[in-house]
Specification:
The complex is a heterodimer of chains A (109) and B (116).
Chain A lengths: L2 E3 L4 E5 L4 E3 L2 E3 L5 E7 L6 E5 L10 E2 L10 E3 L8 E8 L7 E2 L3 E6 L1
Parallel strand pairs in A: 2-11
Antiparallel strand pairs in A: 1-4, 3-8, 5-6, 5-9, 7-8, 9-10, 9-11
Chain B lengths: L4 E3 L2 E4 L5 E6 L6 E7 L6 E7 L2 E5 L6 E5 L5 E5 L8 E8 L11 E2 L3 E5 L1
Parallel strand pairs in B: 2-11
Antiparallel strand pairs in B: 1-3, 3-8, 4-5, 4-9, 5-6, 7-8, 9-10, 9-11
The chains are: A mainly beta (109), B mainly beta (116).
Chain lengths: 109, 116
């Protein structure tokens, strides 16, 4: 079964603390994985994709095929990082994405 | 560059009624997909349209149907509404997967449907 699991509904940290948003997936092939973000009163938007291996807004995510994980990390959280984060799996073919349930990140001053 | 726009933003229907939601894709994007997002859940894929034809469908019954028009805009129709259809319906446009940008979706703000 193709599935994305985000075990934490809420992650609460203080400004300057490290952040790790967990994502685990279930997929039999070679996955393409994404992180999407939704800031308050904004639309859902792409944050990063594992293929590009970029760092966006200080966030990075490494695909670990052995652990079937794609955790999102940032060394020093900022208040403007507060948002809803969704991990998504692209199983191939047409543009269907399988989303996790999301994790709300709250960064406190 | 015009982003994805959806209408209406909110609507209330009663069980058994039918609803049509509309979406205009981002300029240059010829692929449109629709997602249902229930409260507290991630978006769930309904179907995708490319070149005015449905070319992918998720686990939704046939009473969920759609259209894509020559200008790439799209409609989502839901017949015989049920209480569980209450959700945020998201439209996303994208370039075809063959461009190497598969999975990169540009979302609208959504249409929030409440079924009473």
């Amino acid at each position: 079964a193709q599935r994305v699991t985000q075990p934490e509904k809420l992650l609460s940290v203080f400004k300057g603390a490290p952040v790790e948003l967990k994502c685990n997936y279930s997929y039999s092939g070679s996955p393409e994985l994404f992180w999407y973000v939704q800031y308050s009163r904004q639309r859902l938007q792409l944050l990063l994709r594992h293929i590009s291996r970029e760092s966006i807004k200080g966030f990075t995510a490494d695909l670990n095929k052995g652990e079937t994980s794609f955790h999102l990390k940032k060394p020093f959280a900022q208040e403007e990082d507060s948002a809803m984060y969704y991990c998504a799996l692209f199983p191939g073919g047409y543009n269907k994405l399988i989303f996790g349930a999301g994790t709300r990140l709250a960064v406190h001053p | 560059e015009t982003g994805v726009t959806q209408s209406p933003t909110h609507l209330i229907k009663t069980r058994g009624q039918q609803v049509t939601l509309r979406c205009s894709s981002q300029s240059g994007h010829n692929t449109v997909s629709w997602y249902q997002q229930a409260l507290g859940q991630g978006p769930q894929f309904i179907f995708q349209y490319y070149r005015e034809e449905e070319n992918g469908r998720g686990n939704f019954p046939p009473r969920f149907s759609g259209l894509q028009f020559p200008n790439y805009s799209s409609e989502l129709n839901v017949n015989a509404l049920e209480l569980d259809d209450s959700a945020l319906y998201l439209c996303a446009s994208s370039l075809p997967g063959a461009t190497g940008r598969a999975g990169e979706l540009f979302f609208g703000e959504g249409s929030r449907l409440t079924v009473l």
